[in-house]
Amino acid sequence: MINVVFLGTNSALKDRLSLLPGITVLFAMNYKDVVRVCKQAVSSTGSNNCVILYEKRSLNEDITAITYLRKKRPNGYLILMADIIDNSERSSYLSSGINDTLALNASISEIAQKLEFIRKKKEQLFANQTSKEQILTFQIPLWKRIFDVVFSSVSLIVLSPVFLLTAIAIKLESKGPIWYTSKRVGSNYKIFDFLKFRSMYVDADKRLKEFEKLNQYSDDSADDDSHVQSSSTMASEEDVMLISDDFIISERELSSQRAIQQKNAFVKLENDPRITRVGRFIRKYSIDELPQLVNILKGDMSVVGNRPLPLYEAELLTDDESIDRFIAPAGLTGLWQVEKRGDSGKLSADERKQLDITYGRTYSFALDMKIIFRTLTAFVQKENV
């Protein structure tokens, strides 16, 4: 059984809904009243499924109402009743939470067929709505949060002398702030201010382009603009050619180069010349990461998790598989870190991403303790990271 609620003013449609065989349609006065009516229907029928038939009005008014209904009834199934929906409007309605559409002048049999389909497929349809809401409202498990608070609080007190000495050393060697703050992406794509001791010169970010050839994870097949310009001569007759003010390139070649750019989402320079002498020391012993204990105490990060990605890296990891890495919190240490610490080998961008995905899908208390133990036993890094 499913509960059906209608919100609208079309009297002819109301009459047809009242004549639906074997289905009682409840009528709401406004979009906030829909929530009350749904709760009333659920309590009387015992079925938690609620189909909301929403009559189209103006776009702005509708988006406000649909967003509210999706928030209050996350497992509801919303059907937009409308005669005409522009292509520009369609995407707005879908992104706000509409699941399906029906013509405003739909016959009794057409409406009944739609509701019967929803009734038969309700386990699948309503389960999909619930799973989407769970992804959007993912929260760190209680055991993990308790461990994070205790660990970070004790560590901040015990390591306070190290904080003081490091701050003095950074100030004495080079001009600039003690802390380095950058925007990073954690679980649920939440953006936060990521803290580290500054280990580079103050103009390091501006000089990144100068040293991109040193990137350990760059694909050697990614060439410069001269390659782009000459690619037109290698294109076949069947290729679609794209012409700009600066170059001519085939559509196939452009797609290939964009794929290479996505592979190079991770940036790491070998023997990075931007790092100060103090910076090399604190990086070798992971002292530069200690301010992240504050992030952990605030709830932005966890002791164990995935690498907190910069925005420019996170925006390239939006495929279905990569999303799984964002259901785990950003961490001070993690699978990716312990797999490479004390090892002179290099991890490719794909290997790093796969380790993050693995942790996001499988993390547990036992795995966290194992990673912490491996981190402590491999504390001294052999890489200048």
Characterization of the model:
By secondary structure, the chain is α/β, with parallel strands linked by helices. It folds into 3 domains: 3-136, Response regulator (Rossmann fold, 3-Layer(aba) Sandwich), CATH 3.40.50.2300; 142-218 and 264-377, no CATH class; 219-263, no CATH class. 47% of the residues lie in helices and 14% in strands. It has 16 helices and 12 strands. The chain has helices at 11-18, 31-45, 59-72, 87-96, 108-120, 122-136, 142-158, 160-173, 225-234, 251-263, 277-284, 292-298, 311-314, 335-340, 349-362, 365-377; strands at 3-7, 25-28, 50-55, 77-81, 100-102, 179-185, 191-197, 241-243, 248-250, 301-304, 309-310, 330-333. Strands 2-1-3-4-5 form a 5-stranded parallel sheet, with helices on both faces. It has a 3-stranded antiparallel sheet with strand order 7-6-11. The longest helix is centred in the middle third of the chain and has 17 residues, at 142-158.
Residue stretches low in confidence (pLDDT < 50, at least 5 long) are 130-136, 220-235, 241-247
Distance N to C terminus: 59 Å
Instruction: Give the C-alpha Rg.
Output: 28 Å
Instruction: State the domain count.
Output: 3
Average pLDDT level:
78
Q: Helix amount, in percent?
A: 40-55%
Shape verdict: elongated
Would you tell me the structural class of the helices and strands? Answer: alpha/beta
**Element-level helix/strand string:** EHEHEHEHEHHHHEEHEEHHHEEHEHHH
Helix count from the secondary structure assignment: 16
Describe the oligomeric state of these chains in a short phrase: single chain
Describe the largest sheet.
5 strands, parallel
**Proportion of beta-strand residues:** 5-15%
Report the strand count.
Answer: 12
Biggest sheet, spatial arrangement of strands? 2-1-3-4-5
